[in-house]
């Protein structure tokens, strides 16, 4: 098992927004960039999320106007359950269990993320070959993180929930239609402190004005070169929450791409606190009993 | 901010709205060719058949190993099929099976005695077959299973409940390294009452009762890695095994309490078990290999801090017995086993583990047979992923500090596809003495390749 542990919060961090804010935002054309981002950051992404996800990665080529894999894609499937905690519901606890590939089936991760940027995430991994839970670390926060999520084009930094104050913002323009949605186009530049530990020197985000969903981001590497295009597709409203069912990252430098797809998802279902503990990693009966309940909620 | 980072004003000068439009217009649709799930949204994962299959994991493997010095020949040429299956049977019941069958054609070439061929050419092993009942805070597992304790990776400190398969010594793969025993394991999970910063401690009691006492498995006479009995100067024919066997009355017992809270994991254990390694007793005409009972009290911790996980473990073992040189007398004494180390993650560039372990035998006798009064080992692992984690390179070393003897391993693991894996492994020993921990392996350098198909 080579993938380091980062639970897929990108789907929650980037792609989920509440319908409840639709009306409030619809006519807000005079917002400044920071306020837009504040609202996007503060959106209610649902208190819990249960999902089955698939991550595909390949080297790509252009076929007509489409990007297609030029090799057999590497595929990982996993089931993930997460729940928000803390006064602002910005702390997150999550469990992910790998379903595929076969050699990694049953590997489990437990991760606690904290809103407080001074608190490192707590992470544990269960490998059946070792037969025990191992505490792991994700590296320090003072330098750019290398490597990627399970060998995909999602870097660890792409998976982390950003902090609003780590960036300055500028509204570049308002776009009438992107993916059929009115959008703000906002540029984010890291503060000097954030720039030291980021792989990116800036990003441009297309934010759905009504749904506050980031539909596309283009990130630039430390040399100022366009590095990745992250695109959200197939947006659906689930239990009042807007969810992008697919996220694609196109590495414009390596010409590789990864796609995460929710094959099934449920929002705001009851998730037992005891499930988001180490017991889930080692107690198969306990895990399956709860998973059966959660699977029944999936759409 | 780094010098390469442009401020907003500079960027606007360089990239105008047209470029933004260009970026947008140039965005192609994405598709992952040949990946139907991107389009179908099918429910394959959730069908009953898929649930059953998703609980099953087969591994077809072929291993080929060549001894570079002694023996200077093929030592392993083995195909195996392993099945792992686990399934919830009902709301509260769960079952797991882990079994393997193998055939080693290296034993077909006439180099080995019949007894070794019979024992090692074709092997079947059920590593785990247990049933579990789990309700509320309690879990009970009954059946053949493996219990792994402790925090240390490079030494046996408190991890004494499941013996090792040392037939191929250090060459045994991790998933084959433990022997299953028929055990009864109770777990009780509970939470701390007081929350601090919104987090309560996760706590667990574990009681292990093991009537099926097994011990470490060593290679028999005729096996390429059969033991050299050194100063004992005896043949294996003269050794009579007195293994513990199955008995509820003489069952091994272990109790562990563990807690995880914030950056700390701690655990404490007490146990009464049989020694997994033999202690010899002289009886008329024979040496009796016995596995005496001893008691252990121990504990361990993990503490994560930035890039590091610090870890430590202590095991105090009483009534352990050791042979003395020359006389085969047995000496009952206390040992203090200690490990301290760290895991380090260089922000995704590589990972590293270092561990220093020491076994201290609380005995003044200098003539202990094949063991030192203090045995100190530095153990390290460095690992790095390449090419989108399709290649992993790992270097492992073990350095015995008293005799300055060492073991080195280089591994290259290729993920060829989602189903095929290949591995190249080189092992090298540097040892001077015959009767030391690594001395028995001094000439056992080898190169091995392994191909796996998982489905």
**Average of the residue pLDDT scores of chain B:** 85
Task: Compute the average pLDDT of chain A.
Answer: 85
- Distance between the terminal alpha carbons of chain B, to the nearest Å? 48 Å
Structural class of chain A: alpha+beta
Beta-strand residue fraction of chain B: over 45%
The run of helices and strands of chain A is HEHHEEEEEEEHEEHEEEEEHH
What is the domain total for the residues of chain A? Answer: 1
Report Rg of chain A: 19 Å
Q: Please tally the helical runs of chain B, counting DSSP H or I stretches of 4 or more residues.
A: 5
Largest sheet of chain B: 18 strands, antiparallel, barrel
Radius of gyration of chain B over all CA atoms, rounded: 26 Å
Total beta strand runs of chain A: 15
Given the helix and strand composition of chain B, which structural class is it? Answer: mainly beta
Number of helices of chain A: 7
Fourth-tier CATH superfamily name of chain A: Lipoprotein localisation LolA/LolB/LppX
The arrangement of helices and strands of chain B along the chain is: HHEHHEEEHEEEEEEEEEEEEEEEEEEEE
Name of the level-1 CATH class of chain A: Mainly Beta
């Amino acid at each position: 098992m080579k993938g380091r542990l980062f639970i897929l919060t990108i789907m929650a961090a980037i792609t989920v927004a509440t319908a409840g804010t639709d009306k409030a935002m619809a006519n807000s054309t005079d917002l400044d960039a920071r306020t837009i981002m504040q609202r996007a950051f503060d959106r209610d992404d649902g208190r819990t999320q249960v999902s089955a996800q698939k991550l595909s990665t390949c080297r790509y080529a252009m076929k007509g106007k489409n990007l297609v894999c030029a090799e057999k894609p590497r595929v990982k499937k996993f089931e993930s359950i997460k729940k928000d905690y803390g006064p602002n519901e910005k702390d997150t606890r999550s469990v992910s269990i790998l379903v595929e590939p076969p050699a990694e089936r049953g590997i489990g991760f437990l991760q606690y993320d904290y809103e407080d940027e001074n608190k490192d995430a707590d992470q544990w991994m269960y490998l059946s070959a070792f037969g025990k839970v191992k505490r792991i670390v994700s590296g320090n926060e003072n330098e750019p993180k290398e490597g990627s999520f399970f060998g995909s084009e999602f870097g660890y930094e792409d998976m982390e929930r950003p902090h609003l104050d780590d960036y300055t913002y500028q509204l570049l323009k308002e776009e009438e239609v992107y993916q059929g949605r009115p959008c703000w186009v906002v540029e984010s530049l890291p503060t000097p402190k954030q720039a030291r530990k980021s792989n990116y020197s800036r990003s441009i985000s297309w934010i759905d004005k009504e749904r506050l969903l980031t539909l596309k981001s283009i990130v630039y590497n430390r040399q100022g070169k366009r590095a990745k295009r992250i695109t959200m597709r197939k947006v659906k409203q689930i239990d009042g929450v807007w969810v992008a069912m697919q996220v694609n990252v196109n590495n414009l430098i390596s010409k590789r791409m990864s796609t995460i797809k929710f094959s099934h998802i449920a929002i705001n279902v009851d998730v037992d606190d005891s499930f988001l503990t180490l017991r889930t990693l080692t107690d198969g009966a306990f895990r399956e009993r709860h998973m059966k309940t959660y699977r029944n909620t999936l759409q | 901010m780094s010098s390469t980072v442009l401020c907003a004003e500079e960027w606007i000068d360089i990239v105008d709205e047209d470029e933004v439009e260009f970026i947008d217009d140039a965005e192609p649709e994405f598709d992952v060719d040949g990946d139907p799930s991107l389009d179908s949204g099918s429910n394959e994962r959730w069908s009953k058949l898929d649930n059953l299959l998703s609980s099953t994991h087969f591994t077809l493997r072929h291993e080929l190993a060549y001894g570079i010095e002694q023996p200077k020949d093929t030592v392993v040429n083995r195909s195996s099929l392993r099945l792992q299956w686990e399934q919830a049977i009902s709301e509260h019941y769960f079952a797991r099976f882990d079994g393997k069958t193998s055939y080693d054609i290296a034993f077909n070439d006439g180099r080995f005695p019949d007894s070794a061929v019979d024992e090692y050419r074709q092997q079947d092993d059920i590593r785990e077959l247990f049933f579990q009942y789990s309700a509320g805070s309690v879990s009970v597992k009954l059946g053949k299973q493996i219990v792994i304790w402790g925090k240390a990776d490079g030494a046996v400190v408190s991890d004494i409940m499941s013996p090792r398969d040392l037939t191929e010594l250090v060459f045994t793969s991790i998933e084959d390294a433990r022997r299953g025993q028929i055990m009864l394991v109770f777990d009780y999970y509970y939470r701390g009452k007081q929350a601090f910063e919104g987090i309560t401690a996760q706590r667990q009691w574990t009681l292990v009762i093991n009537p099926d006492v097994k011990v470490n498995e060593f290679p028999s006479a005729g096996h390429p890695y059969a033991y050299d009995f050194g100063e004992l100067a005896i043949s294996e024919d003269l050794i009579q095994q007195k293994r513990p066997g199955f008995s509820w009355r003489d069952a091994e017992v272990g109790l562990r309490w563990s807690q995880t809270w914030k950056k700390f994991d701690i655990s404490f254990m007490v146990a009464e078990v049989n020694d997994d390694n033999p202690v010899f007793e002289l009886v008329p005409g024979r040496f009796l290999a016995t596995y005496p009972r001893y008691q252990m009290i121990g504990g361990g911790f993990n503490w994560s801090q930035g890039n590091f996980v610090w870890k430590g473990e202590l095991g105090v073992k009483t009534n352990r017995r050791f042979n003395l040189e020359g006389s085969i007398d047995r000496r009952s004494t206390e040992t203090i086993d200690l490990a301290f180390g760290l895991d380090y993650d260089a922000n995704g560039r590589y990972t590293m583990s270092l561990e220093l372990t020491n076994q201290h035998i609380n005995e003044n006798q200098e003539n202990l047979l094949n063991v030192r009064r203090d045995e100190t080992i530095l153990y390290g692992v460095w690992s790095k992923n390449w090419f989108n984690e399709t290649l992993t390179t790992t270097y492992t070393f073990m350095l015995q500090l008293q005799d300055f003897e060492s073991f080195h391993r280089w591994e290259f693991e290729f993920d060829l596809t989602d189903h095929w894996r290949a591995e190249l492994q080189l092992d090298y020993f540097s040892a001077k003495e015959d009767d030391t921990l690594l001395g028995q392996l001094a000439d056992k350098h080898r190169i091995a390749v392994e191909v796996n198909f998982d489905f």
